[in-house]
Design brief:
This protein is of the alpha+beta class. Helix content is about 20%, strand content about 20%. It has two helices and four strands.
Length: about 90
């Protein structure tokens, strides 16, 4: 994860994002590398973007992930813990 997020940061792919939503990292519960947890890594690489961050969503490498279409309007409310995504096809 560190490598992938670092590549996105250095490439400029995250420049101008309005928010970041990530999936669940349950498989890493209790894991640390040199005293860093997954959450430490996420905060280190994303906090300085100055945008809302929301994690723990049912996205990514899970048995039944929720699909999130790319390029459609979405509203991320980190305070409420919600991500509302417009349908990909109307």
């Amino acid at each position: 994860m560190d490598r992938a997020l670092t590549q996105l940061r250095l490439s400029g792919a995250l420049d101008g994002v309005a928010g970041v939503a990530v999936g669940s990292f349950d498989e890493f519960a209790g894991f640390s590398d040199r005293s860093w947890t997954v959450l430490d890594t996420l905060h280190d690489l994303l906090d300085d973007l100055g945008v809302p961050l929301l994690g723990g969503l049912p996205l990514g490498h899970l048995p039944d992930p929720v699909p999130v279409p790319v390029g459609v309007p979405a509203v991320l409310d980190a305070g409420a813990g919600t991500l509302v995504v417009a349908p990909a096809v109307r």
